[in-house]
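Quick log. Single chain, no ligands specified.
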Amino acid sequence: MGSTSAENHDTGSTENGTSGVGRRALIKRSAALGVISVPTMSFLSACASGGGDDNSGDNEGKTSDSNPFGVKKGSKLDVVIFKGGYGDDYAKAWEAAFKKQWGVTSVHTGTQEITGKLQPRFNAGNPPDIVDDSGNQQIPIDVLAKNGQLLDLAEVLDAPSVDAPDKKVRDTLIPGTLDAGMQEGKVVALNYIYTVWGLWYSGKLFKDKGWEAPKTWDDFLAICKDAKSQGIGGLAHQGKYPYYINVAIMDLIAKKGGLDAMKAIDNLEPDAFVGSDAAQEAVEAVYEVVEKGLLMPGTNGLTHTESQTRWNQYKAAFITSGSWLENEQLKTTPADFDMKFLPMPLLPGSVLPFEAIRAGSGEPFIIPSKANNLPAAKEFMRRMLSKEWSTLFAKEANSLTILKDGVDPDVELRPGTQSTVEASKAAGDNTFRFLYTEWYSEMNSAIENASNELMAKRIQPKEWLKRAQAAVDKQAKDPASKQNHRD
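-> predicted structure:
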C-alpha cells in the first residue's frame, strides 16, 4: 500500500475505544485521511534485545520552557521514514525546520524495507532515534513493546503544546486517536495520520456508466455484475496483501453487528467469529463476489500498487483501501479520474447506518528506548504535533493528522481526500475502529492468511470463521492480552 497498510498503513479502531472519534471537534476543519494500520508479517521471534539504559548522555542540553527535553544544539538525529503512500518529502521538510530551530542535523533514511534495515539495528541495541514503522515490512509494535524496545511516550504527550503551552500535547489531539498506539496500557506508538478505510471508485467511470454509488450490498453486487457484463472487473483487491480485503470483511462485520461485534473481536471473545451471525454474513457476502466471478481478473496475484494501477485504468469498478490511496496513486491516476471514497455498503439488517465508517489514526511513529538522541527525538515528535508541522504534512502528503484543527485553511486537498472529509462529516459520531490489528500482530496475520485462502477459493466461509476464531482463542491464552480491553 505504499502507505501504512500493506505497504503502508493502517492499518489498520475507534479511537476512543468504543464508538467514535469525537468527530465534532474534527469536523470544524475536517479530516480523514491517512494510513493505515498495516498488515504485519508473522515473524520476529528475534528483536530480542530489550530496552535498557539509553545512550543519550552526550546529547543532553539544558532544559527550559521552550526546550523541555533539553535538545543539544549541534547534535544529530537519526530518522527513518516508511516511504510509502505518503512518500517522505514531508519528513524532509520537518527535518529542515528542526535544523533551523535547533541546529540539529538529521540523518534521513526513506525506505519500504523497515524490517530488513531496522531489525538488525534493534537487535544490536543501536536503533534509530525516531521511526515511521509502517508498511508490509513493519516491525510489529506489539513485538517491540514486549521486548522493552519502545519508549513510553507519556513524557512527550504530557509536555506543553508548541502552539498552546498552557495545554498538554495530548489535549490538542482528536479524541481517541492515541488508542491505536497503546500496548498494555501505555502509549508506545504515535499513530499520526487521520485515516478512513472503505471502498473507492472513479466518479468519471460511474458517470459514464450511469451507476449510482451503492448504499446496500445488493446494489454493490448489481454494479459488479453490470461491470462484468461490460468486460470490467467488479472488485479489485490487493491480492498479495490480504490486509486490504479484510477492510471489506471487518467493516461488514462492524456495520452488521454494531460495536458489540467489533469489540468481541478486539476483546478476544469465544464467539467473536464462530457463533457470530454478523461475522458469518460478512464473510459469506465477500465470498459471493469470488463465487460469482466478480473479482477483477488476476487481482489475487497482484501487489497493492499493481492492483490499484489497473483500477486506475478502469479495469475494475471498486477497490478497498485506506485514505492514503490517492497520494499513493498520483502517478497513475488519470487527471479526470475523480477518485471517490465510499462507506462500506450495508448488509440487510445492519445495526450501523450506511454513513458509518472505519476511521481513526494510522501510520505509527515510534521512539526506540535505546535511541542515541532521546532529547531531540522527543522534541521532534512534540513538533510533529504543532500546527506548523501538521500543515507541512498536509501540503506534502495530501493528508490530515491527528492534531485538532491542525491544518491551515489555505491548504487545498485533492478530490479523493476531500471526499473522505465529506464522509467524515456525514458519519458524525458513527465511526468505529478495530484495535486487534495493532494489539495482536500474530492473530492479525493468521486472519489475513485465512482471507488469502478464501479469496483464492481454497477455503469456504465456514473454514475462514474457524481459522479466525482459532487465532482469537490462541491469542486469548496469552496472559498479557488481559491488559488490553475495550469497554
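The radius of gyration is 21 Å.
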